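Sample intake sheet
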Amino acid sequence: MRIFKSRTPRWIIIVTDLFINLFALLFAYIIRFDLDSQSVLIQEEWDKFSNYLWLFIAVKFVVFYSFQIHKGLVRHTSTQDLNRIFFAVSTSSLVFLFLGAIRYYYIDGYYFMPTSVVIVEFLASFSFIVGSRFVIKLIYLESLKSSDDFENIVIYGAGVSGLITKKTVQNDTRNNQKVICFIDDNSKLWDTRIEGIKVHGPHELKKLYYKHNIDTVIIAIQNPKAERRKALLDECIELKIKVQKVPNPKSWINGEFSSKQFVKAKIEDLLGREEIKLSVEKINNNIFGKKILVTGAAGSIGSGLVKQIANFNPELVILFDQAESALYDLQWELRESYPNLNYEIVIGDVTHDKRVKNLIESFKPQIVYHAAAYKHVPLMELNPSEAVKTNILGTKILADQCDQNKVEKFIFISTDKAVNPTNVMGASKRAAEIYVQAKNANSNTQYITTRFGNVLGSNGSVIPLFQKQIENGGPITITDERINRFFMSIPEACQLVLEAGTMGNGGEIYVFDMGESVKIIDLAKKMISLSGLTINKDIEIKITGLRPGEKLYEELLANEENTIATHHEKILIAKTSVKENMNEKIDKLIDLIDSQQNSQLVLLLKSIIPEYLSQNSEYEELDKND
């Protein structure tokens, strides 16, 4: 197996290919002249051409080098490599035909060789070159079956964690793994050796891959810079290198861990951004020693908020949700991770006014984070009355009770789907935004709205869905190749919500910087690659068509909205006018809930939000009547 441990020098590959071409040329002459290599005719033709043999070799060399057919790993020859070889061989033959035509018409009236020889040489060259590569590939694959070949490892991070990772790999005799080198961002460490292992710069990964046939990169840095982590993962995906991470130090035992604890890199590692710089003092002043109510506490954002709030020592956190099983799970998580947190679990529905009234009057919270909502677009398109009931009526009941009980702050969690809504869910959240913003004008409670896009890993979001589809063997289903979305991690979104809660005087809509939007199909492809699988070979991607109410592109600002900067670079204020006299329409909307007259309900919702235009929905007909 030693022959396969390092990459064959490129010059050997290209010289071998040239010799194969010479053999193919001789083979073509023999075929052309009736398989008689001793005939006088073939010797005469060969003698005529031999003076120009240098030109044949030169053309082949230049074309082969230009197409870089020598740069691929021979033992890993792929369809891409075959295409490159085909175009290189055919181009070189066409070039030689072209040069022969120039000689014939403009020099001495002779071709370099018969056209039939060129054709046979082309077919033979392609067959012999491809055949040689597949013979080597077969030998390599057979040798893998019977050898103790190693999986070659590169460790990203040459610090303490990197050295522990190296020790873990080397001490585990059950895994045929070999640490080839470290890569590290610190240029002072480059070209040095640590415990006998050389340190390289990250820019050398591609060279290392080709030289040592790298199988896996293990990220041993706990919190690498997001930009650096993304660049590394993108390169590993391109080179088809597996990526693993060391476990969280909390799970280490006596400063060590086992190789079984290595975890696969996830798409969140690729999309995650730099850690947010929070105004810790302001958030602490806002939360420390206070009673905090979180609605939808068992959901993705709600539970994330609870965990963030727990870090600022509130007097009490009230967890309000109707999902008993999820609340039970959260309870156990809080007991384990936040043993000193004082909290109360209350099961209930934000649309039950008496339950909400009793909740606020009993616990007297000073700050309310309202995350309870229905959020799934297609489901709410089929159930408009439930979207209005929870997202509008529930918000109204809670906001009114906060006003009546003199709650200090009410922070409403909205969504980018409320901007120029195309579906019932987004429109219901926009109507709730309008109500909350208007409520601020006549209340001592500060009403604040936060608006952001999709969060990574939230319940029912695209990433857990894709992961489940990959685990089931596919296909991954995407509604449209053009669709894109903004993404933000749950901790990042929750931290920005806490930060926004310290700002302004109330009535503001805070918009979060979501970074660059991501094409969902690209997301799916990268998730497949990170799983060590091949697109459309191991996992198929299937386009299913847009769902009712679904947008191709999400927005964070409506057409008439502008932004005002805040002291935090990732939080902006959406400059929008407060809509007056909306209470009557919203009350009418709420009155329609029990009637289950969906068309009338959606029509009234459209009158409250003129920019609401349905897409891919049965309610598009209502827009035509305007």
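Comment: The radius of gyration is 33 Å. Residues 1-6 have pLDDT under 50 and may be disordered.
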